[in-house]
Amino acid sequence: MAGGTVLFAVGEHPGEGPHGGQLRRIGRETEAKGLEVRWAATEPEARAVLRTEAGLAAAVVAWDLPPGPHGGDEPGGAAVLRRIGRRFKNLPVLLVMEEDADQDLERLPLWVAETVVGYVWPLEDTPAFIAGRIASAAHAYREAVLPPFFKALRRFDDAHEYSWHTPAHAGGVAFLKSPVGRAFFDHYGEQLLRSDLSISVEELGSLFEHTGPIGDAERNAARVFGADRTYFVLHGNSTADRMVGHFCVSRDEIALVDRNCHKSVLHGLVISGARPVYLIPTRNGYGLAGPLPPAVTEAAAVRDRIAGNPLAGGAGSLRPEYAIVTNSTYDGLCYDAVQVARDLAASSPRVHFDEAWYAYARFHPLYAGRYGTAVGPDTFPGPERPTVFATQSTHKLLAALSQTAMVHVKSSPRAPVEHDRFNEAFMMHGTTSPLYPALASLDVATGMMDGPQGRWLIDEAVTEAVRFRQTIARTGRRIAAAGDRPAWFFGVWQPDTVTDPGTGERHAFADAPLDLLRSRPSCWHLEPGAAWHGFPGLTAGYCMLDPVKVTLTCPGIDATGTWADHGIPARILTAYLATRNIVVEKTDSYTTLVLFSMGITKGKWGTLLDALMDFKALHDDGALLDHVLPGIVAAYPRRYAGTSLRELCGAMHDHLRGADLVTLLDRAFQELPEPVAPPQWCYQQLIRSGTERIRIADAAGRTAAAMITVTPPGIPVLMPGESVGPDDGPLLRYLRALESFDRAFPGFRSETHGVTVDDETGDYQIECVLPDRAPGAP
């Protein structure tokens, strides 16, 4: 594996004196061996290279490197060595020593010998020899840094063998025989297509048998992510959820399900035939779904919940076999996973943490104890510990290709997971034609998190998120203090103040030290009863806000549900941001979620800040929608032509406040529909023409045949087998309010899975079981 960069942090840039000239010659010889050389004259320059150059393969560091302005008495070389240890795993470092007789190794701190791989006295050996040592160490590092499957795949690619197996494009050759195929080949490149191989390539191992380099990669991932066993999954976390649910619970057994779940969890219940008993999370005034309060997961509360569920009467046992919790939530709420496991262990032998958006948690101390694989014999000793599954969508917030996911297993004697049995579920939901570049990306994502670089990568994302959060808060404060424009601005959903646990000093969030916010979990805890989050029933330390999931808040309502006279509905903001090529993750009525992944930079979030400032100026100046949202006006000219941005915000805010949509949403989630039939039964009716699509105006009292999920907030409001309820019930009132909103503001319609809209009338329609097929029908 050739190539790579070598850092030469050796003091003043090499001149023509004996020592400097020799270093220059060593650098030239190093470049001649295929390596790029980056020179740094001071510790700050070296720090900049270490921050920006991920392709480093070695470093040559002078112990007496000039330090930075805050270096203290320690030489700059020491600071560089420490920073290398925090940034890279096992990067080879050669320490440049002075030539005077008084300099010797015994004067160096003992930790230095544990950090470097050797020493260089520039004038004692030839430049070619020293450069050879550097190149040898660099090449060995570049080879060793590759994780198992990716290394084997590269080795196979380099063999340039002819293929007589699938896929039929044969390394891309077939594409070269067609004009459109050639365009495809040129776009993606030969290397990707050569890596698209068949399971017939034995030397790469088997995904289903977990052998060879694939098996090695899964075992490596288990070590890195803290699991007993890890399985690589294609087709996304949805497949991982279905796989685990299908394995853990069978027909007519009870599953405890966080109502704030992904639809793939329901699909797993449909496949298995389980009977769900839903646990209801809290909600706040913004309409955001909160955590399951501790009182909901305690054994007595679970027993009461099961006893009150009509489906439980047909279950084989009243003891749940499986419980699933969403962690973190879509909006970034992270549980104390050990406490949740302890609470649910009193009811269920298996606990599944759906961590689709949370694969990075193990790699930063902010999240200590708040992820599934943190639950183990060391944190939860004794026979009551449940088996824990954690499913993670690796591609979402780590660096992997789309559709890649992992299942992590922490087995317990109480409910042991035998590999051969679980592998049957794995094979049932897997594919015999895996995309090898996707598997390699799972392997690489694991390698990126292994060791100090994982902490460094996540810390960088946390740091940028904190900087953005503080900048928004400070900007809002400056606008309010200026007095030369309307005082409103966007906010961020976060604590107003934080306390330094070391000193007890309390800071306004906007002014808190950066190091405090990025290193102290208590700064992000949802303190019981705090108005900023608005969730009832929490206990100290139970739930934490994830700093990298940033929820922007718009004027109009607060976390306690108090309406304001003036409002900026978030759907309008999101539509404007899209015109600036800024695509957000999720939009609710008055909140917008943006994710600070490892790919975030100051330039990227600075562009978002600029767009927010521009939106405010356009709103306050009365700019017309023809200028601000020309696409909306072009699509609906009779509705929006001649309307200003401020007028649209006011009209939409008045509509939302008049309909009290947030309260209706809260009631629809808190007062769950009555379960009538298991989800699997409803699915059987769906595929055997036992259902019909009807207007919600005619749906009172009917049994839903398909899930209805409204985005925002992205959580099911109606599950298959549940009663739609009475005409004046919370569910139909909420759906009618959404229907009314869509008619009033075309172009801003809710994304509602399970609902179709009549193009002519705008009526909402949903799938219901035919009356003569419904349970209890004559």
From TrEMBL:
<dbReference type="InterPro" id="IPR008286">
    <property type="entry name" value="Prn/Lys/Arg_de-COase_C"/>
</dbReference>
<dbReference type="Pfam" id="PF01276">
    <property type="entry name" value="OKR_DC_1"/>
</dbReference>
<comment type="similarity">
    <text>Belongs to the Orn/Lys/Arg decarboxylase class-I family.</text>
</comment>
<dbReference type="Pfam" id="PF03709">
    <property type="entry name" value="OKR_DC_1_N"/>
</dbReference>
<dbReference type="InterPro" id="IPR000310">
    <property type="entry name" value="Orn/Lys/Arg_deCO2ase_major_dom"/>
</dbReference>
<dbReference type="InterPro" id="IPR015421">
    <property type="entry name" value="PyrdxlP-dep_Trfase_major"/>
</dbReference>
<feature type="domain" description="Orn/Lys/Arg decarboxylases family 1 pyridoxal-P attachment site">
    <location>
        <begin position="391"/>
        <end position="405"/>
    </location>
</feature>
<keyword id="KW-0663">Pyridoxal phosphate</keyword>
<dbReference type="Pfam" id="PF03711">
    <property type="entry name" value="OKR_DC_1_C"/>
</dbReference>
<protein>
    <submittedName>
        <fullName>Orn/Lys/Arg decarboxylase N-terminal domain-containing protein</fullName>
    </submittedName>
</protein>
<keyword id="KW-0210">Decarboxylase</keyword>
<dbReference type="InterPro" id="IPR011193">
    <property type="entry name" value="Orn/lys/arg_de-COase"/>
</dbReference>
<dbReference type="InterPro" id="IPR005308">
    <property type="entry name" value="OKR_de-COase_N"/>
</dbReference>
<dbReference type="InterPro" id="IPR015422">
    <property type="entry name" value="PyrdxlP-dep_Trfase_small"/>
</dbReference>
<dbReference type="InterPro" id="IPR015424">
    <property type="entry name" value="PyrdxlP-dep_Trfase"/>
</dbReference>
<dbReference type="InterPro" id="IPR036633">
    <property type="entry name" value="Prn/Lys/Arg_de-COase_C_sf"/>
</dbReference>
<keyword id="KW-0456">Lyase</keyword>
